[in-house]
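check these tokens.
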Amino acid sequence: MTTAAAIGLGLVAAVCFALAAAYQHRAVGRHVDRTADSTQLSARHFWALVRTPRWLAGTGLAGLGAVLHINALRLAPVAVVQPVGVVAVPLSVLLTARRTRTRPPPVVWAGVLATVLGVFGFVLLTARSSRSEVPVLRDILVVSAVLAVICCLLVLAAKHAPGRWPTLLWASAGACAFGLASAYVKALFLLLGARTPLTSPAVWGTGCVMLAAYVLGAWMVQHGYLAGSPEVVVGALTVTDPVVAVLIGLVLLGEGGFGLPTALGMILCAVLAVAGVVALSTHHPQVTAPVPDITHPPAPSHPSSNRSVS
């Protein structure tokens, strides 16, 4: 019963995240000069965004989704809760299609289908694990260091990558941070449930890393919105996030116990989901369209063309 409730909370959270992606993507696109040479967010850009009602609405929806997601993690293992967010992918595609009044090409829907099937297959294979172990401080430090290095490498690659790759790399870096944060939410519940003192380094260290991961993950995702479409960002998030969270659950929280056939099935499902996101990022109309360069505006029309005829 608690697992069903956790999945239900995860589904509602996914809807909130999809709506938040749509709101924030539009706000970033309108208030940041998006050119072929400018794909970075500065402090000035962020100050403009925090004064934008649309971006604040998206942030509020993301916060509500985070609260629901945290409660879902309180009720079920990370391996069960994280992959449920894949439903945000088709929702994002539908929201953007409705906003732009365009019909996504079949290859985009094929990418969505592959992503959904891959992640749902992943969750069905991992849902059998219902136990979680209390983590130890040494493992928490090791996992934090490894994920920090991975995020730094992805950010450096995103800053120098050409074409569609910055969107995927920024979103993947944010997803790694969010996956770490989700796993650490579960770790905190386990530590507190085991009556670990609040003054213990394992408790406050896990809490500090969790908060930092949420903040830095949000910063990375905003760069992803600037570099590409919300569907690509959401797709990368809903694939990389659960994979990272599940791996941390396996290593840090002892949510393993899988046999070889299950592990192979998990790998195949993960490959299918990644292939779906790559197809989505490659063939999405917003990705294949040329990026407008506002640094060279069109020449003004001849004055005579604007003269009214009496």
